[in-house]
Amino acid sequence: MKRLFYIFLPFLICACEDGLDDRLILKTSGEVALPEELSAGNSTIFMSSSKAYDQPSSWVTGSLLTRFTSGDALYDNARTGDDDPYTGGLGPLYAGYSCGACHKNAGRTKPTLHSVGGSGKYNFSSMLVYISRKNGALFRDYGRVLHDQSIYGVEPEGKLSVTYTEEFFEFHDGEPYALITPHYQITEWYADSIRPEDLNITVRIPLRHVGMGQMMALDHDELKKLAEQSNYPQYGISGKLNYIWERGVYQIGVSGNKAQHADLTVELGFSSDLGVTNDRYPLEVCYGQIQMMGMAMNGIQITTREMEDVDLYMHSLGVPYRRNVTDATVKWGELLFQEAKCHLCHTPTLHTRPRGAVLLNGTKLPWLGSQVIHPYSDYLLHDMGPGLDDQYVSGLAQGCEWRTTPLWGIGLQEKVNGHTYFLHDGRARNLTEAIMWHGGEGAYSRAKFSRMTQEEREALLTFLNSL
């Protein structure tokens, strides 16, 4: 039978003339990709280098590729405090000078929490610091995010300091491990100091921008069914969806540590993180602050079309393939992952809705539709116990509740970003510590992991690093 060949990079798709049921995906080596390797269907890329998070999917061609490249530049290029129409508008207060400053190579830049103990005096921080009153209200002179960076002539809102206490433990076979607990303090407040007893601080290190498009194209009916079925009393597991008000609509949240957003927050990121005004957020984040009285406001500093190019870039990034899927240790580790019931929250397989995704300015991406994906997340909220309770409420998510972190690409984080800090605030220095911080609904899995032999634990970690 005659076959038609469509060539894309970084892999080759062979489509049968009769339809797509006979579709094969070939790796750059010419080998046929195994189904287990295809993390994100037609958005899977066969790359495992330091740029593995930062490559376009194969369907990004023509005008889409032009816009992808534009969005990539807007994502990576440092903003400045001047009025340059393409890179200006930074500040006056900010947390990052570009998207890529915190998300190096579309991953998570190494935070300064461990290296300089917080913001440091001159160091860029690569983290977000959320502040609120103990009752959840915001402070008049600040807001939800502490902006610890500023342009010349403006005072940062404050600086974060962190110290850690370390506790030492042993697994059941006697192998030692340690966990560190962060203790946060804010100093150098630009206005009146806030009393520590009235202050709640929660810190977030950057998320990996792997699989963002697939996340935005998720089949919400499938998520609703997962929430209905995610009740395993024998393992203490019961997940739920987060519902949030966004753009005037009460809807399912999937994005962020607590699933507190329904989109990729490009407009919010430019406004709150970079201090760049836009049509959705036309006021500077420092608007109304005492130190800004008399300063001229600069109007809209980035267009909606430009922000949609950034949105396109994030949606259409390729997802790294699963590696070493036929390796015996990896297969054993996967069985142990299931035996520990990790898969009940870190759901291996989900599906995207037929229509794909729609960007913030209405551009449609049907290529993201009707895909079988393997994010290893149910995108539901789970109670992770008092040890990870940050007392910060987001929509229906309480302080102890966190969205299941997608695991795809996790094994490449050290190669892409040079560190293995995990969990929302980077307190876990490696995957072992991340597992051992699981409390609440994760307690059963943690206990199973702690009772494994050293060889079994290493196999499970080998499996995680293959994702």
List strands and helices in order, with pairings.
Blueprint: E1 3-7, E2 12-16, E3 24-26, E4 44-45, H1 62-76, E5 93-94, H2 99-102, E6 128-133, E7 149-150, E8 159-170, E9 176-187, E10 199-204, H3 212-216, H4 220-229, E11 231-232, E12 237-238, E13 242-246, E14 249-253, H5 266-273, H6 304-315, E15 319-320, H7 328-339, E16 350-351, E17 357-358, E18 364-365, E19 372-373, E20 381-383, E21 401-403, H8 413-417, H9 431-436, H10 443-451, H11 454-464
Parallel strand pairs: 4-15
Antiparallel strand pairs: 1-2, 2-3, 5-7, 6-10, 8-9, 11-12, 13-14, 16-19, 17-18, 20-21
Helix pairs in contact: 1-6, 7-11
Question: How does this structure look, described?
Answer:
The protein is α+β, with helices and mostly antiparallel strands and 467 residues long. The protein folds into 2 domains: 1-33, no CATH class; 34-464, no CATH class. It has helices at 62-76, 99-102, 212-216, 220-229, 266-273, 304-315, 328-339, 413-417, 431-436, 443-451, 454-464; strands at 3-7, 12-16, 24-26, 44-45, 93-94, 128-133, 149-150, 159-170, 176-187, 199-204, 231-232, 237-238, 242-246, 249-253, 319-320, 350-351, 357-358, 364-365, 372-373, 381-383, 401-403. The strands form 10 sheets. Strands 1-2-3 form a 3-stranded antiparallel β-sheet, with no helix packed on it. The protein has a two-stranded parallel sheet with strand order 4-15. It is globular, with a radius of gyration of 22 Å.
